[in-house]
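Reopening closed ticket. The problem is back. First fold of the pair:
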Amino acid sequence: MSTLARKACQQCRARKVKCRRAFESDETCINCQRLNFLCEPVGEALPSPMCLGPHGTSSQLTGQPYTLAGTVRKRAPRACSVCHKHKARCSGDVPQCKRCTSRGFKCEYLPSRRKVRGSLSPSPIVEQPFSSTSIDTTLQDSLPQGSFSSGGGSEVFSEQKLTSSKTSMNCDDTEVRTCIDSYFDHVYPIPQFSFLHRALFMSEFRRGQCPPILLKAVCAAGSLYLPKNCPSKLRTDAWVSEAESSVLENYDDTCLANIQTILILILCHTVKRRFKKVMVLLSIASRLAYISRLNHERRDLSFIESETRIRVMWALYMQESLFAGGLAEFTTVPGSNCHVRLPCPETSFAMDEGCESFEMLHPTCTKSSSNLGILAYYIRVLNLRDRILRCVRTTALETCLPDGFYDQLQEFELELYRFHEALPRSFELSERSLLLHALSPSRKTLIMLHIVWRQSFCDLYQGFFPNLKESFSATILQHVTPDATQNFQKTCSEHAVQQVNNFDLILKLDSSGSLKVTDSGIAIYAYQCAKILCQLQPNVADNLGVSTGNIPHFLESCADVLTELLPYLPFVSQIQKDICTMLRYYNRQRGSESCTGNHSEDETALEKGSSWNAVNQERMMSKYGPLDTIYRNEKGEHQKLDNTTNDDGMLPEQELAPGRTENDMVATIDDTRDLPPSKVYIPPRGIMGENDTWDNNWDFQFQDHDFNMFMYNSFEIHESFPMDP
């Protein structure tokens, strides 16, 4: 049989073989006849090779892509978005590939960026509309390290949904970047929020693949620390509302982004003093964490993925321990349920350097570990303080000292000292150490570690002061010898004085521009320190080598350290004013010591402190804490709180009572005893004590309007001032 050559057909040209025909009139060449191909001359459109079957028919009917040679294609020319994201082999079947079909994923083919070569038509693209739900939660494969949402490998985000994250912010990228930078500069250094990887988060944001709900929560938290004239401040409430609505609509979604969003929303609600929402969100986050098995470490994940899960779990533990205040009924994430190692050092997490540390919450030895970061030590001291509060609060409600109570106090004190001795030298609090950490995200964790350590001693022994809200009952104090009481008060006062030295060091570096501290927890500890110093007796001060004339300076330091917080957290101004009121009262008391009448009346008023403690557990909710605010709201004592608070968290100008002038705004012991009740200024309900922060252990003692003065038992006289910082 003779063969005739003519212009090659498309199939032979594509396969780079010689095209032959038995007869010139034949429409099909020999090669196409042998391989059962559709023989078409060059210039005419052929179906896509992906759609051709072994007989030249469309593979959409057979469901199997073939090569031009008729063999089964092992590698598809296009991959769906899910397989492409996870770098998995995609079969290329349409409308769904085999991998997505077997795993129940939503398969989508996005338009290719490549230009189609020749006249071959592009592969068919399946256009599928996407729903408003932003998270698909059935994926169990771990995401790659380059993906921000790889924190646990339990979620995947549709490409189209992630791309809409920028447009859902209703503002330009510059404004969003400003909020993100503010978050990582001010919020991320706070120990409870050190779980986002900044580099990966910014990478996902630039590609438009950041989860929208998490992006809104981050921007809302970051905007809290921006200047008042920043336009992002106007969008804070909207971002919080949208993120919270998305979380609650998908409350059964156990993806890591949902838990991270809840933790950040807790900060936003805390600043606005919405503590009921905080407690509800904490309970939801804890259940989601248990369902996601965040409290158990996964060895099959990459280092960043595993470390992110660990940090989220410990962040939840820290948040709840601060809010629970040592009360078991408010604890859903005890330390015994966290079966994961402590977080690695910050540099290892930031640079993706694997950490070989397997240190758990309770140390197995007293020596320091080089693989432990400052965050791990902070978690340990927070756990130790939580156990101290549980012991002290339980004892304060008793009518007699439990057996072995002194031994337990001594054991706690020894454990605190052992913890401090185990700290590496680089984690000691000194001017040089703070300067070296000034540009590190761990600077606030280093400061808070030593402040919480000092506060733990104060929490351990302040119950032996008779005039504090946290005092033990009178029957307990009667069974304590005077020498033991004086020793306990001495230890508590000694650490309160050392706490002031920490504040002075912060103020020194802050004034030089080397250190900026914006952690709201300092406000709580400064208030407690000032309250204890007001109780410092001359004989105890002499034993400490401290002159009572230095106490006004100590109180000034406690108030000055809060100044940096005022532009960001307006409610701190009330705490600062309370400390200033203590200072004025202390100076007034020192000036009137020679007046026996006034002094005896003051002592009589102060003796009421211990009689409040054994009534019920609700009385143990300390001032400026969330739990006592919730209790009072439930009893209707602060029904006007929401109406008396401005949008920015500030309290409005307070009105004077009839017969009072601007000079009479401070209700003190001296100027209220001789006035009739109608002339005494009493701050309205909802003003006193509602400016609470996220710590929970501080003084609250509510006085009804029937009283002729508004005074706390530990020299805490509240005055009414405008709340503008």
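Second fold of the pair, where the issue appears:
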Amino acid sequence: MRMQQPAPWRREAALPRATPRISGQFAHLLVDLPAGQAGGAGRSWIASFAPRCRLAGDGTNGGRMYSHLLVTVAYDKGHDAGPVLEIARALAAPGAKITLIHVMEPAPVFALDYLPEGWHDDMRAAITADLEALTADQPGAEVMVTEGDAAAEILEAARAGQADCIVIASHRPGTQGLHLGSTATKVVGRAQCAVHVARRA
């Protein structure tokens, strides 16, 4: 009687290496997949999985230290960018570049007539100032404020800036991938570099 071979996604060798960490109020899991396994076995709703990109560092932090981290900052209910930035710093190689990005959502058309003149420029300036304050003690840090679809803007910024890790927060706890939140789910599924997703514990 022939023994049935286990499905490829059930073979132990196919599973990515996962490293759980706790930082402040966040619980997070970092998963690195070798190139060619993006979207493969072992996907986790609080994880990162994308082709392995450039790694820098001296072997500390499990060898996972990145040279350019793109950190997403959302201004929504419960917003606190501090812990996410702390995670990025923990993953950064010595001398690494950290870029903070916020994507402004276009105002609904029906609301435009009720908004004061210059509101868009004022909001953009306020957000830029806040991001700069967050990185005041981070040498060489940059900030970006763009407008459009959040996932698309984040992915384009990562591509254009040659980021090797995206750090993004998920605000919707759950046990399925869809509960990452729509933006985080899209970024994880399409990124061509490592993605580190953190959620509140």
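Update: turned out to be a display glitch only; the data is intact. The beta strands are 17-23, 26-32, 66-72, 92-104, 142-147, 165-170, 194-200. The chain has one domain: 18-200. Please close again.
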